[in-house]
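Milestone 3.1: sequence recovery, worked example.
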């Protein structure tokens, strides 16, 4: 009984593994009170199932999230999370791991909506979706991989350098299949003179085209 009382009085433990006993709504409703007011790890991973997970079923948890992890193969679900992340600041949010695939709907291109100013966002991973990060520039880690995008869809040097120049505290940077070659030809010059960019805290760098 003593260990049960101790376990039930550890809201951070429950909040960090709220989906550890499954993703069924009944299980979630049972465990959620144990988290009290602790920020949540909203880890919507597929785990051992290939069943599509609807972000709409968990939207009520997003305002409490310190971490959001979500992979979508349904454009409408990806759009729902884009809307959530761009609507208003999420005060607890520190980490976003968000990937989307539109291979099943190749005629759909997800919008590049800017994120809201999430004040505590430090770690951002984006796969085949691009949302300009908060302009406040507090990122410590930025990982973008746009391997499904065509060359024309990928980002210009101006866009990438603009993001980096706002996030001088970056320690980890990974950019894979991010830059378009359209604006790299001699006939295309950046819209403004490119100044030297220094990231003084950078410890890890991975670039791939």
């Amino acid at each position: 009984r003593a260990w049960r009382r101790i376990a039930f009085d550890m809201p951070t433990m429950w909040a960090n593994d709220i989906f550890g006993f499954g993703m069924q709504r009944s299980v979630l409703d049972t465990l959620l009170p144990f988290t009290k007011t602790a920020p949540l790890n909203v880890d919507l991973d597929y785990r051992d199932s290939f069943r599509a997970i609807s972000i709409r079923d968990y939207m009520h948890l997003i305002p409490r999230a310190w971490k959001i992890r979500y992979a979508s193969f349904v454009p409408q679900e990806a759009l729902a999370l884009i809307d959530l992340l761009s609507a208003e600041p999420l005060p607890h949010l520190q980490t976003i791991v968000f990937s989307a695939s539109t291979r099943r709907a190749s005629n759909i291109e997800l919008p590049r909506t800017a994120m809201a100013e999430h004040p505590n966002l430090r770690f951002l991973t984006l796969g085949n979706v691009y949302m300009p990060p908060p302009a406040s520039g507090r990122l410590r880690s930025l990982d973008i991989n746009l391997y499904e995008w065509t060359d024309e869809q990928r980002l210009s040097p101006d866009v990438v350098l603009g993001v980096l120049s706002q996030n001088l505290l970056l320690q980890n940077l990974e950019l894979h299949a991010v830059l378009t070659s359209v604006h790299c030809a001699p006939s295309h010059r950046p819209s403004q003179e490119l100044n030297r960019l220094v990231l003084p805290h950078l410890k890890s760098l991975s670039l791939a085209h």
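The chain is about 20% helix and 20% strand. The helical segments are 2-8, 11-16, 25-31, 75-87, 157-166.
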